[in-house]
Specification:
The protein is mostly helical and 815 residues long. Among the domains are: 15-186 and 348-366, alix/aip1 like domains (Serine Threonine Protein Phosphatase 5, Tetratricopeptide repeat, Alpha Horseshoe), CATH 1.25.40; 435-526 and 689-815, Up-down Bundle (Butyryl-CoA Dehydrogenase, subunit A, domain 3), CATH 1.20.140. The chain has 24 helices and 2 strands. It has a two-stranded antiparallel ribbon. The protein is elongated and about 145 Å long. Residues 756-815 are annotated as: Disordered.
Length: 815
């Protein structure tokens, strides 16, 4: 610790990062802007960060850090906090430990504010307070440090706490830690005011009030530490806690001492003695705490000087009262409280949230993150609306109609009657479609793709389990060497194992669905292959029918019903064509639909540096989506029209069947045409199954990779716990040998049950890159607090709907 009688906040060591590539990639992938158009801004950001994260004590540094923070505020209105940029900072009191790495610009902002407060405190500490000008500058810096910490606590920490990585926030950015430091800086500013008043020769009454308020501020600081969680409490070095507590008692003693002098001036000799006794008790408490806590020699000397002054004054007061005044000495509890004079103020630096006029704001021309996210939300809603309310309902209506016609042997039954020889045009068209697509070879190729993707997904899941198995083995070995106070792997990873079982069940059931599709293909392969034959070969497969040319009343009735059915079928085809046209128009509208100009216009009216949320543009999104209402309404109307036509077809087809002659040749031809028509529908069904199955496995592979990454993160954290415990056990052995007998039971009780880091007196310059052990992309900051719950959304797990197995009529495999 410095030999100053005041404390300064160390810097949080930062590490160099190359943000250019990450920022360019984010702009490329998530915005409509080209990264090259912001090349100057990206380079400027890199330059500002070099001088804006702190680490050097110079008065010009405050302007650079204020400017960088203002730019970060502007950047955070344009970009989300997580752009994939790994940012590392070391712990404030343990600069050589593994740094905390978060993908969070909010973390960068909070750390910059912390280091700015540290810089103000160090500038104040460097001032020569032996003269008034130095004291004034120190007061200004301490008040700015307190103001910066207040701004950090009330503004930046709220955004950091809202991030998905909340549980990884380092303890030195915990609110209780920041609050304690804020009170400390304000207390030291107040102490400087007291020192200035002493030099200026102010009266004892005011000096007592200033000292009383100084003591109260130190008390607030130490109370914030005591009330904090054990990990935050243990973050503060022992000599810091001793210093703050000693200062509290010291200035309470000063207040009573100065007030006793005022009592002497007012001839209240008994009250004077009572206050001097209280001052003596407080001064001795400060002296004991300072000596046990190894605080700086300057503080010890201040306290010793006060102890001596109080002792001398008390001896004189008691002698005079015994010999001359004979006044009663009231109990301490009967003394009136000393009023407080709160002079020190929390001062938020002026340039913290707004840079100087004329400053070029980084990404000033870029559409804000909230506005960009509103565009993304609109595009997602548009896509979902198009798919769920237009395209998919239209397809389902077409499938429903086709299924109904197939079940009634239409149009094959009337085509067999209308065209006794040759092939119907509709069947020729279907055969040509399968032939041009090289249907059988395409199906076999897609089966290979499906099986390959399925094997890939199974392999990912096996790799994830290998990771957990390796960690479990390491855990068993570590338990033989270290006193691990945590659940064994088979208990701690139970939720990961449950998720693995769920994914494996999904894959097993998907495999069963694949087998069903394969069996369907084996059953219909020959029939579908027949569709690839040329027209003459197909025609040879279909027998002709001979129909009597003699007109009879019965045949006339049959022909009439056949004509009715043909008209209804043509109406149904027209309805399908009209619906398809509406779908294409909706898709074309969606393809050309660009909401960017409207969002840009709405965003231009929002105040500069205001963080805009996507919800701001909700009305605009609703108005734009209303363009698709007419298409949705038409799909609903066409559904009722189709129901009416299908009902009429069903009724007329029943009459047609009853009136038709029982001609075996017609029946045979009808059966052949129906078989070919059904083969075409099976072909379409199988290809749809395979397409959806391949998409299913592709989508699932992304989720399985997330699961695998979550297993890696979890295992890395478990390894970090073992590493930290191993290091802490070694440092505890050294600390116990060096410090045995130096601290009272009171200080021992203040420590957490685990281990306490020794204070770091020196603050070496940080390396240009994090230590090798910090290279993984993410290191958890709260070693002792454990991971977030495994059922937390932070792990990135998503619910997957298992695709239904294929049925005889239709099979789908989709997520």
């Amino acid at each position: 610790m410095s030999n100053s009688n005041l404390l300064f906040i160390p810097f949080k060591n930062s590490y160099n990062i190359d943000l250019k590539e990450t920022v360019r990639r984010y702009l490329q992938d998530h915005t409509s802007a080209h990264p090259d158009s912001f090349k100057v801004d990206i380079n400027r950001w890199q330059e500002l960060r070099r001088d804006g994260v702190g680490g050097t004590v110079h008065k010009d540094g405050t302007d650079k850090m204020n400017n960088y923070h203002a730019q970060l505020l502007s950047i955070l209105t344009k970009l989300p906090s997580d752009i994939g940029l790994d940012i590392s900072y070391a712990s404030v009191f343990s600069p050589n430990t593994i740094p905390v790495t978060l993908r969070s610009l909010a973390f960068e902002r909070a750390a910059v504010l912390f280091n700015l407060a540290a810089l103000y405190s160090q500038l104040a500490n460097n001032e020569d307070r032996s003269h008034l000008e130095g004291i004034k500058r120190a007061i200004s810096c301490y008040q700015s440090a307190a103001g910066t910490l207040f701004y950090l606590r009330s503004s930046a920490l709220a955004e950091l706490s809202d991030s998905p990585q909340e549980d990884d926030i380092p303890f030195d950015l915990d609110k209780s830690c920041i609050h304690s430091l804020e009170w400390l800086m304000l207390a030291q500013a107040q102490e400087c005011f007291w020192q200035k008043a002493k030099i200026d020769g102010f009266k004892n009454a005011l000096m007592a009030k200033l000292a009383a308020n100084t003591s109260a501020l130190y008390k607030l600081s130490i109370s914030a530490i005591r009330d904090a969680s054990p990990p935050v409490k243990s973050l503060f070095p022992l000599d810091w806690r001793a210093h703050i507590e000693a200062k509290q008692h010291h200035f309470e003693a000063v207040a009573q001492y100065r007030k006793s002098t005022e009592e002497l001036e007012n001839s209240s000799y008994g009250v004077e003695i009572s206050r001097l006794k209280e001052a003596q008790n407080e001064a001795k408490s400060a002296q004991d705490i300072a000596r046990r806590g190894k605080v700086s020699q300057a503080v010890v000397q201040d306290i010793d000087s006060l102890v001596n002054a109080v002792k001398t004054a008390l001896a004189r007061a008691e002698r005079d009262n015994d010999l001359i005044y004979h006044q009663d000495i009231p109990a301490v509890s009967a003394l009136s409280p000393i009023p407080h004079a709160a002079i020190a103020q929390v001062t938020i630096p002026a340039g913290l949230s707004s840079p100087p006029k004329g400053t070029h704001m980084i990404f000033g021309e870029l559409l804000g993150w909230g506005a960009q996210e509103a565009i993304n939300i609109y595009n997602d809603r548009k896509k979902n609306l198009l798919q769920d309310q237009i395209v998919e309902p239209a397809r389902e209506l077409k499938d429903k109609a086709d299924e109904m016609l197939t079940s009634h042997n239409l149009p094959a039954s009337i085509e067999a009657l209308e065209r006794p020889v040759g092939l119907p045009p509709s069947l020729l068209k279907k055969g040509e479609e399968v032939r041009l697509e090289n249907g059988p070879m395409k199906i076999e190729s897609w089966f290979e793709d499906l099986q390959r993707q399925a094997r890939h997904d199974f392999n990912i899941l096996e790799e994830a389990m290998d990771i957990l198995d390796t960690e479990a083995s390491e855990d068993e070995v570590a338990r033989k060497e270290l006193p691990l106070n945590r659940p064994p792997s088979y208990e701690a990873n139970i939720e990961l194992i449950e998720k693995e079982k769920r994914y494996r069940t999904i894959l097993d059931q998907a495999k069963a669905s694949d087998d069903t599709v394969r069996r369907k293909w084996d059953e219909w392969e020959n029939n579908i292959t027949d569709l690839t034959l040329n027209e003459s070969e197909l025609e040879a497969m279909v027998p002709s029918s001979t129909v009597s040319s003699r007109k009879t009343p019965e045949s006339a009735v049959t022909s009439r019903y056949a004509r009715h059915l043909r008209v209804l079928l043509e109406s149904l085809d027209t309805l399908h064509a009209d619906r398809d046209q509406y779908v294409r128009r909706a898709e074309a509208l969606a393809e050309a639909d660009d909401i960017y100009p409207r969002i840009l216009k709405a965003a231009s009216g929002i105040e500069r540096l205001t963080k805009v949320q996507p919800a701001t543009f909700e009305d605009v999104l609703d108005e734009e989506l209303a363009k698709y209402d007419k298409f949705c309404e038409y799909i609903k109307e066409s559904e009722q029209k189709q129901e009416d036509i299908l009902s009429s077809i069903e009724a007329d087809n029943e009459k047609f069947i009853k009136s038709r002659k029982d001609d075996p040749s017609v029946k045979e031809r009808e059966h052949a045409l129906q078989s070919l028509d059904l083969s075409y529908h099976k072909y379409r069904e199988i290809t749809n199954n395979l397409q959806e199955g391949i998409k299913f496995y592709n989508d699932l592979s992304g989720l399985l990779l997330q699961f695998k990454d979550s297993c890696k993160i979890w295992c890395n954290h478990r390894q970090q716990e073992i590493h930290a415990l191993s290091q802490s056990l070694g440092s505890m052995s050294l600390q116990e040998s060096d410090d045995a007998g130096d601290f009272s039971g009171e200080y021992i009780r203040d420590q957490p049950e685990a281990l306490v880091d020794a204070p770091a007196p020196s603050l070496p310059n940080p390396p240009s890159q994090p230590p090798q052990s910090a290279q993984p992309k993410k290191v958890f900051g709260k070693i002792s607090s454990g991971l977030p719950p495994l059922n937390s959304s932070e792990w990135g797990f998503e619910e997957i709907k298992l695709p239904p197995g294929p049925s005889k009529k239709k099979s789908k495999m989709k997520v």
